[in-house]
Amino acid sequence: MGEAHNLKRSLGFGSAISIVFGTIVGSGIFFKQGSVLDSAGTTGTAILAWVIGGIITLTGGLTIAEIGSQMPYTGGLYVYIENIYGRIPGFMAGWMQAVVYGPAIIGALVGFMSLMMANFFGLSASWRLPLAAISIILIAALNLLENRVGAAFSVITTIAKLIPIAVIIVCGIFWGHQDAFNQSLHEIGVHDGGFGVAVLATLFAYDGWILIANLGGEIKNAQKILPHAIVLGITAVLVVYTLITIATFRFLPAAKIHQLGDNTTSYLVTYIFGPLGGKLLSAGIIISMFGTLNGKILTFPRIVYAMAKRGDLPFSRFLSYVTPKGKSPVVATSFIAIMALLMTYFFDPDHLSDLCVFTVYCFYLMAFCGIFILRRRNQKPRPFSTPLYPWIPLISILGGLFVLISEVINDPAGVILFLGIVIVGLPIFYIVKKLERAENN
């Protein structure tokens, strides 16, 4: 079952930007309004938190776009860290995405999605886990086909998700009667975490933008398309998220959003359009989440594939297998699906969303710093250069430090657990390489 085939470069700009937009816009914007508002304390501060979270993400995207344009290969962050810092740091970045970040972010997404599905079908909370498992299995099965099928599904669901987003924005801004910028929770005694925690909560909703880099080896003319898709995709999401937040605050009073929590969006669409209209819009949001889930299950197996192709993982010969006709990494896809199912079972989505952002930002920070190393190494013209250098990379580094410090302060036990899982990868790497040398001898 050897790696006799390579992945196919068949994805164009439309597919790339749909994957960026579709992988980001999923559950976060629909389920994090309550927690962001609770931490911020006022609607105006909550809106600012969404804007700041978007700016941090955009500066990171602009920084990675320059790095990615010079390394348009399958594997994304794993490839970048290895090329900049060496073999072992690169392996740790790949291991983190394969066994912690990827499964955790899928588990968080599907956890929120199953809540909305249960509400949609009028099912009890006991159905959340079965619905989550069925969703992961269905989308993983779709991605066992060739990459164009998963990419096409991303394009379709991205178009579909624009309908409920546009409806919420237009109706909220033009027909809402609340003061979107000056409501406060202080009078009901709610203020949990502060502005920093509010920004941290938004970053889960913005995360996922780098996953398109995992498909670098499957994008046509990746040196040009990849950076443009990242930058335009994040910018579009920043605008959309800000408008959705303003629309939500225009329609619902702050106290009601606090009371509803994760159910804010389900209540909002029913409140605006009645039971039938609410059902239709809820269906559109669920389709949107399926598109995001598809983007993540499409991209994360490419990291496993890239690592296995290098012989960095146990059972690499199996994990690097791609189908002869469809060129799909079927074993790697199945591995990610199984890991995500385990995460979904053992952790609640809110906890997973915070911890997966912390874990990936450990390596984002390394990559952001890496742009300075690459510029010293390579004086040749680049396919894409980060504008306002060095200020944009410096802002992304400060944003990364903010994420790490905030999460360590707020959840030290979860941080230790997830970092422990990442560190376990180091002895595994040495064992795999020792067995590889023994086989070669």
Automatic annotation (TrEMBL):
InterPro entries to which the protein is assigned, alphabetical: AA/rel_permease1, AminoAcid_Transporter
Q: Where does the UniProt annotation locate this protein?
A: Membrane
Q: How does it sit in the membrane?
A: Multi-pass membrane protein
Q: Which UniProt keywords apply?
A: Membrane, Transmembrane, Transmembrane helix
Locate the transmembrane regions by residue number: 12-31, 43-65, 98-121, 127-145, 152-175, 195-217, 229-252, 272-293, 329-346, 352-374, 386-406, 412-432
A Gene Ontology cellular-component term: membrane
Q: Which GO terms describe its molecular function?
A: L-amino acid transmembrane transporter activity
Gene3D superfamilies per record: Amino acid/polyamine transporter I (1.20.1740.10)
Q: Does the keyword Cell wall biogenesis/degradation apply?
A: no
- According to UniProt, the name of this protein is Amino acid permease
What organism, scientifically named, is this protein from?
A: Limosilactobacillus secaliphilus
Q: What is the lineage of its organism?
A: Bacteria, Bacillati, Bacillota, Bacilli, Lactobacillales
